[in-house]
Prior knowledge:
- It comes from Blautia stercoris.
- This is Ferredoxin.
- The chain has helices spanning 5-14, 19-32, 36-49, 54-77.
- By secondary structure, the protein is an all-alpha fold.
- It has one domain (3-72).
- Helix 2 (19-32) packs antiparallel against helix 3 (36-49).
- The chain is globular and about 30 Å long.
- The model has no long low-confidence stretch (mean pLDDT 89).
Amino acid sequence: MKMNRNEMEALYAFGCPNLKATVKRLRMVAALAPDPVAKKLFYMLSVKLSAEGVERWYCCFYCKLRVLKNHREGCYGETDED
């Protein structure tokens, strides 16, 4: 399954290793979002993650996403002090 950058950012912000909890949280955020574009993003991501077979790869994908995002933030936030 492919995800665009906005979907990955939303998953990073609102996701967790528990797929069912993530889908529930994304639907709740979609219901509360005032912006129609954001509302659609969160809802469509929850639908995408509700598809059959997602539970097989989701936890691994989520953990890799967290590691990748944390690594990128660490690389850009560091300074050399030589």
